[in-house]
Specification:
This protein is mainly alpha-helical. It is globular and about 40 Å long. Bound molecules: 4-nitrophenyl phosphate. The site of 4-nitrophenyl phosphate has 12 residues, from loops.
């Protein structure tokens, strides 16, 4: 799960997808990272922690890290939270295999509400709620897809 700061969208996506996969019996490592270095080492944004907590998901122990080129090797799938992040990730790929692994999160989920999770950093709690709803719906579809792919 990759966004810009790794403090708002991708930590929520990491927490939500993990919770959807909890009872799947699959051994899948879900992680998140950001393209920017500003927030490295920080916990998720307070509003992201509170939004997830209201839905019973604890993301408070996550710490922001920067996306690294070796993530393309270590992970089977890389999900970008929005188009800007996707374009940047694609520009970092070394070959066709790495490009094939890289997807827009909402497109992979075949979400009908657009292809980008809007950046809530300069927004309000309502924007964080919207992020949660988008990510939650997409994660149901993605968990289902992963179960079919890796079972
Ligand atoms: P995120 O939100 O990419 O969803 O974690 C942001 C957090 C911080 C910044 C931008 C977006 N920033 O510019 O510091």
């Amino acid at each position: 799960m990759v966004c810009l700061g790794n403090i708002c969208r991708s930590p929520i996506a990491e927490g939500v997808l993990k919770s959807k996969l909890e009872d799947s019996g699959l051994d899948i490592l879900v992680d998140s990272a950001g393209l920017l270095s500003y927030h490295v080492g920080e916990p998720p944004d307070r509003r992201a922690i509170e939004t997830a907590a209201r839905h019973g998901i604890d993301i408070s122990s996550q710490r922001a890290r920067k996306f690294m080129l070796y993530d393309f090797e270590n992970f089977d799938l890389i999900f970008a939270m929005d188009q800007q992040v996707y374009d940047e990730l694609i520009s970092m790929t070394a070959d066709k295999n790495e490009r094939k692994k890289t997807h827009l999160f909402l497109e992979f989920a075949e979400c009908k509400n657009g292809s980008s999770v809007p950046d809530p950093y300069y927004g309000t709690r309502k924007d964080f709620d919207h992020v949660f709803q988008l990510v939650d719906e997409a994660s149901v579809a993605i968990a289902d897809k992963l179960m079919k792919m890796f079972r």
